[in-house]
Amino acid sequence: MTQERTQVSQDEDQHESRIVNIPERRDEIPPAPAEAVFRLDDVHVYYGKFLALRGVNLEIGRNEITAFIGPSGCGKSTLIRCLNRMNDLIPGARVEGKIDYHGQDLYGAGVDPVEVRRRIGMVFQKPNPFPKSIYDNIAFGPKVIGMQPQSMDELVERSLRSAALWDEVKDKLKQNALSLSGGQQQRLCIARAIAVSPDVILMDEPCSALDPVSTGRIEDLMEELKRDYTIVIVTHNMQQAARISDRTAFFTAEAAEGSGDRTGLLVEYDRTDSIFTSPADKRTEDYVTGRFG
Q1: How many CA atoms, within 13 angstroms, populate the side-chain half-sphere of residue 138?
Q2: Which numeric CATH code is attached to 4-288?
């Protein structure tokens, strides 16, 4: 049986103590990723004149699950949207510093943001299936980007199998996707992201609207998917970060120098077991033990 260590933390909404279970890992994770998919160098993110996130430096490893944790307003979602240039769609948003993706400047001249979003898919907090059939939800992306699979039926089936949904929907592919349960809809959205053959899957609080059973299924799915994909997840659930992630980045928000505005910053980034059991920064320790704020 897997041994477990425990660390007391605090639920951000309920302000109640709880136990975060940290599984002992069978395979040691090196201090730095063996192969970095993303390298962030002194990244600052602005919305107009407001500095939302400052000075982020980290590397995200291939075929690992990286969790971003921290209080609301600390820039977690802002940062994850920078990784596939979703912030380009927000008026006034800009990124300073450098984000390398497999050694290429993600914001460099000539980089097509549409192709970036194909390779780096996004699953959002609230399931957002299209008001189409289950089949058409999966086929939509490949058709839009001009993919020409030998068989669209096989691509749909493969994507749904990869998202652990095929057995539940194989006899109702023509039904409207909105008829599915919340957990099924979220797995459908994961299947839709997989259908266009991404390299990375970003997940912005993918389980926050789901019940515990559906959350467990999504977590199990992420463990399976990391064999083929790199996954970055934003979560407010520290138990979830402890259960599924290989590395964890803790962010907080503090007043910027010379300004009363609070801005997000990365406090600490390390292996998940180290973050929860032996953090290097007192701010991290205060957060994971429930003494934050």
Answers
A1: 32
A2: 3.40.50.300
